Amino acid sequence: MLRIPPQHGAWAYLAVPLIAGLALAGLTWIGVLFAVTWVLAYPASYYLGRALVIRWRRGSWSRLAKRELRDAVPWIALAALGAVVLVVLRPWLIAAGLVLALAWLVGLGLAHAGRERGFGNDLLLIAQSLVALPLLWWLTEGSAPAPPVWWATAIIGTYFVGSVIHVKSLIRESDDRRWHVANIGYHVVALAWGLYSPWLLLPFGVALVRAVVLRPGMAAARIGAVEAVVSVLVVVATLLAVG
Hints:
- By secondary structure, the chain is mainly α.
- The chain folds into 2 domains: 144 residues; 98 residues.
- 79% of the residues lie in helices and 0% in strands.
- Helix 1 runs parallel beside helix 6, helix 7 packs antiparallel against helix 8 and helix 7 runs antiparallel to helix 10.
- The relative contact order is 0.12.
């Protein structure tokens, strides 16, 4: 039975750029194949990364490390099937894969150092997830991403960074008031996207309201539900803004 990574926020990081990318580039079989392969690669890299970090920390292949490796194998096999087809059709994806692999290795180093939940690692994960959007365009159109694609990537990236700050201020850094101040300040600045398109005032306005209103102590599920709503607003408004 396939194990699903319990990192709920990570699935939003996967879905939002992919949905926006497919909407901008259009639905094609190669775009859908890329999206499916991209999703499959997440649990593969998650469990393989955990296995290697545990092995690294304990100095041997402990039972836990072996279990994580076993959980990674089926995901790796499934992701590899799609990856092989994509690389045959678009050999330049090898270069993109090498860059992503390097970023993944940096993430492993941070995890080994006990900094996997640090803000720097969060930014690294955001950057990795955002790559999907321009890659989808390049795969589908066969040319470098058009300006609207880069604008969409920047808008979604702005939301992702704000989401990380917001969630940290409510949970992991709830005792540090500086995170609460940073949360509100960041989302005030993010309203500047309204100068690019008034449509963007809706998601970033809602994001600011939730930054002001929500307080530590809320159940993680409720925080996640609010973020899911804001994510939908971001996708819709982004497509309206750049379309």
